[in-house]
Amino acid sequence: MYINTNILLLAFFAITGILFSANNNNMVVGDDCQDDILGLQAQCTMYFQKSLPKMNPSQQCCSVIRKADMPCVCHHMTKDDEKILDMKKVIFVAQYCGRPVAPGTICGSYTVPPPPPTA
After folding, report:
1. 64-78 confidence digits (pLDDT tens)
2. Partners of 111 in the beta sheet?
C-alpha cells in the first residue's frame, strides 16, 4: 500500500505541475474549471491512471465528477496529461458517476464516441 500511495502522490504532483506550470505554453487553465481539475486530481486520479486497472470510482470521486464541468476539464487535457492518464477511463468514470460526457467531445486527443446502437 505504501508504494501505491507514493505512486499516487507522484502522479498527483506531476499532473499538478503540468496543469499549472508557468512555462507550459500548450495550455492555460483559467478560473473556469481550475477548481474542478484540482478536485479531480485529489479524488479521482487513481481511476484515470494508465498504470492501474480500470475500476469503479469511489463516492468521493463521483461527488467531484457530478459537480465538474467535464467539457472544460477535457478541453484542458494535454499530451503530457495523456502520458499518465487514460482518457477512456476519464470518460468511463464520468459515465459511471451519472455525468456522461457528450459524444463528439474532445478530451485531450481522444474524441468521445457515440454510444453503441441499441437493438
Report:
1. 999 999 999 999 999
2. 106
Q: Are 47 and 93 in contact (CB under 8 A)?
A: yes
CB under 8 A, 24+ apart: contacts of 97-103: 97/57, 97/61, 97/62, 97/65, 97/66, 98/62, 98/66, 99/65, 99/66, 99/68, 99/70, 101/70, 101/71, 101/74, 102/71
d(CA 54, CA 48): 8
pLDDT category at 84 given cuts 50, 70, 90 is very high
Which of 65, 80, 81 lies closest to 33, judged by CA? 65
How far is 10 from 99, CA to CA, in rounded Å?
A: 28
> From residue 55, how far is each of 21, 44, 48, 49, 92 by CA, in Å?
30, 11, 9, 10, 9
